[in-house]
């Protein structure tokens, strides 16, 4: 069979939003590995941008897909469907929150969370509608989430943006306090900033933000789309700071690769009523059954614990590389959400050199690379990845 030129076809038919910076056409995956159309094998430390929490084509996911697919894929939200209710029950029990809305992507979950906060503001905060988020944050690509995202480069082409969003520096509770006004209804934060470069705040930050929200009657929305579902070493990123949000959004790793996301909320803020919000595919039976199976597997196999243990080993190995390579300026992160920052703009070159040597990872150009492997990986895969990164640095930089 003649091999089609996928790169050329992609360039012909796609709007150029993706960059496809790694230049690989992936055709198959299993566990922490993927293969390209030529049969070349790669260790996948991108894992669907942290969505493939169990790795590729995990048997638990295949079983849920097959069994649920044979019964029901989608009904409509005019009727009750059991997988949806089961997932809602599981999500509330493991989050300590009370109510759920199911949707399809992280951006959509955040968008819904902001709608919820605005309705709460109308009802309980004298019409306050403002949402304060943080500089360098990432909350998704819908128009309102571009406004919430604290990156001017993602905003400039799309003005005018929806009103009501402002930004303060991350990890600075005093700046946040100063920005609150009587128009503010909510604060929207990532427990660790992911796309912004993997920035872990100081120990007190989330506690101080929680206290501020309590004092001023504001809703605290935590965007756990990237940090949730075990990624940072506990089921939810915020657990490590001992606080609870009023609203939490989750996505990515929840579905293990299928598109599903959720808004979780405390009873007192669960003010959506009939007709306020909806989604044709949100809460479809197929993705709900998969998400329930994925979440149960994460809990039963303690994959959060694995992310903590393997993540701390990985972090030590990266710190050792940092000692060796003076161009490596910082290693940051927690669990299996880690990054290395360079003092020179070499992120893309390093990622491309790693790809040629059999490791896929995510560039945050110009200076940073991010690691988000599946939560199932062990030390052996970490050793392989670190050896490849070391060799790639030698290619890109020369001698240490
Ligand atoms: C913290 C955070 N929120 C929201 C999103 C957007 O999620 P999605 O791409 O599923 O819309 C992302 C995606 O990277 C994210 O990292």
Q: What does the model show?
A:
This protein is an alpha/beta fold. It has helices at 6-13, 47-50, 59-71, 82-95, 106-124, 143-148, 152-155, 173-179, 205-216, 285-300, 303-324, 347-357, 379-397, and strands spanning 26-30, 33-36, 41-44, 99-103, 130-134, 165-168, 184-189, 219-223, 247-250, 261-265, 328-334, 337-342, 359-360, 362-364, 368-371. The strands form three sheets. A seven-stranded mixed beta sheet has the order 4-10-9-8-7-5-6, sandwiched between helices. A four-stranded mixed beta sheet has the order 1-2-3-13. A hairpin with a 2-residue loop joins β11 (328-334) and β12. α3 runs antiparallel to α10, α4 runs parallel beside α10 (285-300) and α12 packs across α13. The protein starts with 5 loop residues before the first helix and ends with a helix. The structure holds pyridoxal-5'-phosphate.
